[in-house]
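Appendix B, record 7
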Amino acid sequence: MVLPKSGSCESLNVSPAFLIDGYWPPLYPRIEYDAEVMLGRAKELGCSVVRFPSVGKWATYPSEIMPPHPDLGGRDLIAETIEVARKLDTRVVLYLSVGHALPESLVRGSRPDWGALEDDGNLPCSRQFFGGEGVVPLDTFGRYWTDILRMVDELLERYEVAALYLDGPYYGWHYWEGLISQAAGTQETYLRETGRPLPRNADGITAEVQDFWRWAADKLLMLFQEIRTRAQAAGVPVMFNLCAGKAGCEDISDKLLALADGCLLERIMGGLKGFAKARRAGCFVWQYASHHTYWPRLSSPTLESDVLFAASETVRYGGRPIYANAGRFAYSMPGAGLQQAFHLLGEQSGWLAHASKVVQAAVVLPSESPSAGHGADIPRSVPALIDAFDSGSLSAEARFLDALEQKPPIAVFPSSWRLDEIPVSEVEAYAEGGGVALFFVGEREGGLSPGIKKLLSLASLRVSEDVSRALALHQFDDHVGVAGGAEYLQDGLHAYDLYLQSDLVPGPMPVGGMPGFQPSGDCEIHGWLVTGTQWKRLTPLAWSRRAGSGCVITVATDLDVILARTGERRVAQFLNSLLKIYLTPTPRVEFANDCVDVQHTFYQQDKSWLLVLSDHLCRGKTSRPLPDFRITLPSGALRQSIRIMPNASGAIADASTGVIDVRGLCIQSHVYLKFEETL
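Structure tokens (predicted):
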């Protein structure tokens, strides 16, 4: 696990976080808050970190800048929370919205110079946010800029907190995409700093509008830096919501992460890439264990099973879950299953804080990825690849190109990499140093550039234009299943179906577009293109070549895309079987039969391990038995002390050799197996 940038953040990385939300009960619309009850229940559930709002729709403390909650009555809810937290050894992270929309009555009645304005000089129509009164966007670059910094000073001077969490910085907030506020504050600031008048919304998307959004992105970074400087002076780490990384036409998430100590991911907003980006910047990660807009008093076995699964998934990815519906615990406790999971994560949180995730395969993301809405900013094959690796013997983790500097045993390059962009010299050094590089080489774009020629040499490929023409395929149809989605040859071979066949797995697999590359030199063949009529082997589709003490594996088709489109289990089996050939022997999990729906991750600290198993099919709705499986740990002949958490049925055979056979294990969404070496 990547430790936070500042030692002061370490305490935040040891526990699931408990969200007390200023937008929901027990703080809105009425204050029914009792710090003893809320923090006591957080502690009961194993959470030693709470996130508490300084501002939700209104201030929760007697602020000189932000109008107080109408029901506050002179109370200081932050001070009350911190006082109880000290008794319970609980860390308090203060929530502060920065540029986030506020209630229309607050803006109109108390802070009219904070409001964003349309071209006609009026506030935009309000929009609902978590029920209650509608909210309107703010003019971040006007008077509000000065006031939010005063509010930061106010909070840091009055309260001792573990961290400051920023919901922002936003401009116009994402409910008003593309709005350029025509308020005097932004107009004057833009004219003073650029010498140009502010573009109007009615102008449409012009070069001047694009220039404005680049300027706005830089201003948001400046605001974040101003807050960060104040927090650093007070010795307080800063977190933020990664959704703030999108400022109009500019994505500033990497720049914000470089300034922050930690970030929060929302489950609906591409969390997988968020983990990769955060690790690259050395930030620790929170991820919501449920959708944060759920009514906080609402609970059911189905919703709680989703929380269980998401919390376990977050731990697998190396983050900490934050429970977004924690406000409901002011009124009732969750079901027994969720309580058990909370206790479990809390119990293991200290151990996890100093453990390292065992990464045996890294999916290396391209430097630039297509973006088209929530969750679409990573190639669609990447989550499928990571799940495929986690379901077998591999523990996969999405990373960017600098993953090669971490030297994972296996680095996987999805077909979303353009061949000319692959850093051939770095990959070659990585392989010669003992690494295994796996390439998915789809249909070739353009001619043979120098970059592609270097890759051909590295991967022992040669181009056959005859083969390329003969095997030109229609793209696999997204809307047709494997059985009905036959790929027809355009030239020559007069066969209807094409498949990948390998001695590593039984049965054929579907294929996608192919570039006509063939192996050359001394290569080991792992898979062939075959026809569905005669099962005739036409040409190699998967092969490997030794390079120094490592090797380069080539799959000459978009097999990762096929995996994402079809979910074909044999493809996942094939990839796992292929990489197992080159995988270091321990630690690993091997199921007695096909079990690709169960993902797993190992953590290690000294001579102890934690194995996290998550069942995508089960998702906590019912308990199901897993196939028998074997766990191999690098412990030699030492004895193992083994615990299964939460309580689950199953038998564990003698573990004196570090090889542990598990039979008849039933799990409900997830299970944690703890192994500790004892003499």
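Remarks on this record: The chain is about 30% helix and 20% strand. The mean pLDDT is 80.
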